[in-house]
Write a structure and sequence with these properties.
With 499 residues, this protein is α+β, with helices and mostly antiparallel strands. The protein has helices spanning 2-27, 42-50, 64-81, 89-94, 96-105, 121-142, 284-290, 314-323, 420-423, 471-498; strands spanning 144-148, 162-167, 188-189, 193-194, 217-222, 237-244, 249-253, 256-259, 262-263, 271-278, 296-302, 305-313, 327-332, 358-362, 369-372, 391-394, 397-401, 406-410, 426-427, 431-443, 456-457, 464-465.
Length: 499
């Protein structure tokens, strides 16, 4: 905590020094002792008072990004204070920093203070809009963040087109590591343009959690092996189910998951791949519309028999068996134990691992000393990124001292999920939060999501919790949050109208 505050304080002092450097000649035009403008942070308070701005603006300094916004607001107000007309507003906003430098250094002698303040209704309305944006940004960054489910790896628990709210405080709020970014965007636009800068980084810090991560919790996290984004908090977001916590042993046999050698409990959302064979072609559209089965693929036709691969949970499997009388074959698509998966097991070794035969594999916890060998090296590879300097050798064997907790993630759609079986473990530092609420759900064409004319709202999923528990608690939490925002804005509007 101290290190994080220290980094932010140093950054704030540097940007304040820069602010003084490009504005000190303009401050001299005011009727107060301009030497006050050299006092860090106090100079901000003085200018807010001179411009008749509300004192709550000083709260912008809490966050690096909002502090930059605050300084930019001050620069724009300074520009307007020395201009008779407020035309070319777009030019002023876009090139404000260059214009303020131009005024401060090149035409400082010709400047006259025209408008000392902007205490009018239009200006107050702008402040209210700005406050609303800042409040939304703070909630988005530090409390609750919206996400949309883009893939089917979590069907039937979370569907493609579900719009969810993720609480960032349940598992402990992780403070931003790359604090300078475009608000309400994550990392990249069209896979080319960064929405953040990695030149300025804060140390990792997380507050105490309200609850610990438990087995079978659905979790949003940053993908550990994202090579395009190096800052932890800017890496791509994934959502999976945490099937293994620190200290657990993961074992998959014949497609069945065992945790500490005990088979996982049944839950309705779990799906697997099935081979489906019948003598009559399958009405795929009927299955998609009437039975909500999305992942259906025709493999081919042979000897007047039609072969399909279909993703089913236990409930839909029973329905299909009752529905089709001419069903020839319906069985799980299990990868044989003797066929290795090159992604899961890149090196040849004694034991063969694939998506359906995996492990035993130990999930390290903080304080463990683990031997690294040819069997586990491929899945432990990403922990080397977070345990630097903790590797040692003993009797020609390689060991690593673990200083972090790790988690094993899997999708509920077990045969259509790119998860910890393929890319390894998730360190605690990459945990983002807990999905708590589905506020909107849209069934769209997965091949063409932008086709709005084919969108269908799933009314039964709107305003429901992800796990179905504590629905009234989460509704109350959401209502309380919206009520606080409303009351804050309402008070400011009334106060400004009275002024």
């Amino acid at each position: 905590m101290f290190q994080y505050i220290l980094f932010h304080l140093i950054f704030s002092i540097i940007i304040n020094i820069f602010h003084v450097f490009i504005t000190y000649n303009l401050y001299k035009k005011y009727n107060f002792n301009h030497k006050k403008c050299y006092i860090p942070f106090y100079n901000i308070f003085i200018f807010l008072r001179v411009q008749n701005k509300k004192s709550w603006f000083i709260l912008f300094l809490i966050n690096p990004l909002t502090s930059i916004i605050l300084y930019y607001i001050l620069w724009i107000d300074l520009i307007h204070s020395f201009r008779e007309k407020e035309d070319n507003k777009l030019f002023t906003i876009v090139f404000g920093i260059f214009y303020i430098i131009y005024l401060n250094f090149f035409i400082k002698k010709k400047l006259k203070l025209i408008n000392k303040n902007h205490n009018n209704k239009n200006h107050n309305n702008k402040n209210i809009i700005l406050l609303s944006i800042i409040l939304s940004f703070i909630i988005h960054t530090y409390i609750v963040q919206p996400f949309v489910i883009p893939t089917s790896s979590m069907e039937k628990s979370l569907l493609v087109g579900d719009f969810i709210l993720v609480s960032k405080i349940n598992y402990g709020l992780r403070m931003p590591i790359s604090p300078i970014f475009i608000p309400f965007f994550h990392n990249r636009l069209f896979d080319y343009i960064n929405h953040y800068t990695s030149l300025i980084k804060w140390p990792y810090f997380r507050f105490n959690s309200l609850e610990s991560i438990r087995r079978n919790d659905i979790i949003v996290f940053n993908y550990p092996l994202d090579k395009k984004n190096f800052s932890i908090d800017r890496k791509d977001h994934y959502v999976k189910r945490c099937v293994g916590i620190p200290g657990d042993i993961i074992f998959i046999k014949n497609g069945k998951l065992f945790i500490n050698y005990i088979q996982e409990k049944f839950f309705k959302g779990r799906q697997q791949s099935f081979f489906f064979k019948r003598k009559i072609p399958l009405n795929i559209e009927y299955l998609m519309n009437k039975m909500d089965i999305e992942d259906i693929e025709m493999i081919g036709e042979f000897n007047n028999e039609y072969y399909y691969q279909i993703m089913l949970n236990e409930e839909n499997k029973k329905k299909i068996c009752k529905l089709f009388n001419n069903l020839i074959l319906l069985k799980k698509n299990i990868t044989p134990y003797y066929i290795s998966d090159k992604v899961i097991q890149p090196k040849k070794q004694k034991y063969v691992w694939n998506r359906d035969f995996f492990g035993p594999f130990y999930i390290p916890k903080k304080g463990d000393i683990i031997e690294i060998n040819s069997i586990n090296s491929s899945l432990y590879k990403n922990i080397f990124l977070y345990e630097k300097g903790k590797i040692f050798y003993k009797k020609k064997k390689k060991f690593i001292r673990v200083m972090n907790n790790y988690y094993f993630m899997m999708g509920d759609n077990r045969h259509n999920s790119y998860d910890s079986r393929y890319w390894g473990l998730v360190p605690e530092s990459h945990i983002v939060g807990k999905p708590i609420f589905i506020w909107m759900s849209i069934d769209w064409n997965r091949n063409n999501p932008i086709n709005f004319f084919h969108w269908k709202i799933r009314w039964d999923r709107i305003m429901t919790t992800v796990n179905g528990n504590n629905i009234f608690l989460y509704l109350f939490f959401l209502f309380l949050l919206l009520y606080m925002i409303h009351k804050t804005i309402y008070k400011i509007i009334n106060r400004n109208n009275k002024n």
